[in-house]
Amino acid sequence: MAKFFGNLHLVLAAGLVLALLLVFAIPANTIPEQAILRWLHLFFGITWIGLLYYFNFVQIPTMPKVPAELKPGVSKFIAPSALFFFRWAALLTVVTGLIIAWRSAYLVEALTLKPGFALIGVGMWLGLIMAANVWFIIWPNQKRALGIVPADDATKAKAATTAMIVSRTNTLLSLAMLYAMVNFNGG
After folding, report:
1. 134 in Cβ contact with 163 (< 8 Å)
2. Mean pLDDT split into 10-residue runs, the chain, 187 residues
3. CA-to-CA distance for 65 and 43, rounded, in angstroms?
4. Contact 49, 178 (CB under 8 A)
5. Secondary structure of the chain: what % helix, strand, coil (to 5)?
6. 68: CB partners within 8 A, 6+ apart
7. What count of other Cβ atoms lies within 10 Å of the Cβ of residue 94?
């Protein structure tokens, strides 16, 4: 068992097989493609927001307490790996969400905040802003702060502060975004 559970790819493959068995054994009350898109959207969203909360609730507050000789373990290995999944989960959450809205014929209504779609529209706009923050502000600054791209110490410090502020902004926005997403009942 330890060998199986020690291999993340095997665990994910088995989880996918189990989910697909469920898809075909007990169909959702919607067309299978839509059910699968919603499931993927939720999976990617949990991954994205889970990592956002990990960074803000665990890594950022803990790093000042980590002894200097141990910090490279986080900055050279853990953070870059977590940031990889963080940014791709953000993108895939947005893409699957937009496809769901388009296939359900409420994309334009939501993005233009039409009555009946304003709640999901606000959630979508918050998600789009947050994803843009991830790709265009947090990630470029984290690359400098973590030394993935060359930067002097002053630039690294400024980049770390910028990434933290924007990450905290995303944490702030996530609370309203999650409310809007889970409480939309139209479409």
Report:
1. no
2. 96 94 83 89 98 98 96 96 98 98 97 96 98 98 97 98 98 98 82
3. 32
4. yes
5. 80, 0, 20
6. none
7. 22
